[in-house]
Amino acid sequence: MRTKLNYNPPKDDGSTYKIELEGISVDIMKEILDYIFSGQIRLNEETIQDVVQAADLLLLTDLKTLCCEFLEGCIAAENCIGIRDFALHYCLHHVHYLASEYLETHFRDVSSTEEFLELTPQKLKEVLSMEKLNVGNERYVFEAVIRWISHDSESRKVHMKDVMSAVWVSGLDAAYLREQMMSEPLVREIVKECNNIPLTPPQQGEAMLASFKPRGYSECIVTVGGEERVEMLYFMNARHNFGVVEIDGILYILGGEDGERELISMESYDIYNRTWTKQPDLTMVRKIGCYAAMKKKIYAMGGGSYGKLFESVECYDPRTQQWTAICPLKERRFGAVACGVASELYVFGGVRSRDDSQASEMVTCKSEFYHDEFK
Question: What are the residue boundaries of the BACK domain, all occurrences included (predicted)?
Fold first, then answer.
């Protein structure tokens, strides 16, 4: 992809020569030249693939980044499979991650789209093998396979057993299967072909747990802090009374103290690459605060420093790598907990000193919430 240049060296008579760029249309090349001189380009769903291909060929990293941001905003049930494959081909790692996450989260919607029905058997198995498919019940995966086979039953029945090997049949209810067999001939064929599908009453107790691992969870527990170091998870700086937030597979460690001083620093750990990275400092020293992620942003709230309690709230955007102050809490507090749901932040509990008494007397704070759209 990076060597599609036909180079004709100059002739002995001094005549001019030309370099031909193959695979880039005249219209796309004109847009890219305009971008190089103006720094602006208009992207749309009709031309985005051509622009990405050209930016990749010409090593235009900034333009490729703009295309990634555009593609991330386009991800939907109808196109996430295509965007995921396209992103993998051109090494758009974050786009691929987000498209995969969308596919896992909205599998039931995706499985009814034309893209899903047109998957090759190999690609279908790859999708069905995802452990984090948000289905709740394996019957929805089984029904997706039925739809895929029915879309072209004559040519796809031969792949029936291979595709069904990716379905977690131990999670299928026997009574449900028997009911489907009575009303759907294709289901009878599948059950006959795949002799590992359960038609007997389910196992009980430990036997059932041993045979079935539900989708949508990962066998991973991250323990942060403590008295000992854990291999591959060394902090860049030792600390306690800090906050931890996760966004897109990145753990962010914020604030706290190291035993000698209170900290304003933030560092991140990439779970997949197993690397630590220094991140921009908070706007203020903050320990025993509460922290939450909402809409791909980090919120640091309350806490305190050197005996003073805060009601301040600051927001960090990993894209811009900038902290921004937003409207404060209604009560200053430390030791609270927080979580983000859709466009709302919820802050629960925590304590503060009474306004009308000695600082040694503490009261429990009320819960409150913040809506991102109202700011």
Answer: 80-182
Taking the C-alpha atoms of 134, 138, 141 and 147 in order, what is their torsion angle to the nearest 10 degrees?
-140
Radius of gyration of the chain (CA): 27
User: Roughly how many angstroms between the first and final C-alpha of the chain, as a whole number?
Assistant: 46
User: Please, what sign has the CA dihedral across residues 49, 51, 57, 61?
Assistant: negative
Query: Could you give the CA distance from residue 158 to residue 187 in angstroms, rounded to a whole number?
Result: 14
Tokens standing for residue 350: 């925590």
SS3 (DSSP) at 232: coil
Report which DSSP code applies to 138. T
Identity of the residue numbered 117: L
Bridge partners, residue 364, by sequence: 351
**Mean pLDDT calculated for residue range 306-335:** 88
Distance CA 118, CA 114 (A): 6
Over residues 178-225, the pLDDT tens digits come to: 777 777 777 777 777 766 565 555 444 444 444 455 666 545 556 666
- Pick the closest to residue 293 from 269, 276, 318, 275 (CA basis): 318
CATH of 243-371 among 3.20.20.150, 2.120.10.80, 2.60.40.650, 1.20.120.530? 2.120.10.80
Per-residue pLDDT, 49: 94
DSSP character at residue 158: G
Cα 349 to Cα 331: distance, rounded to the nearest angstrom: 10
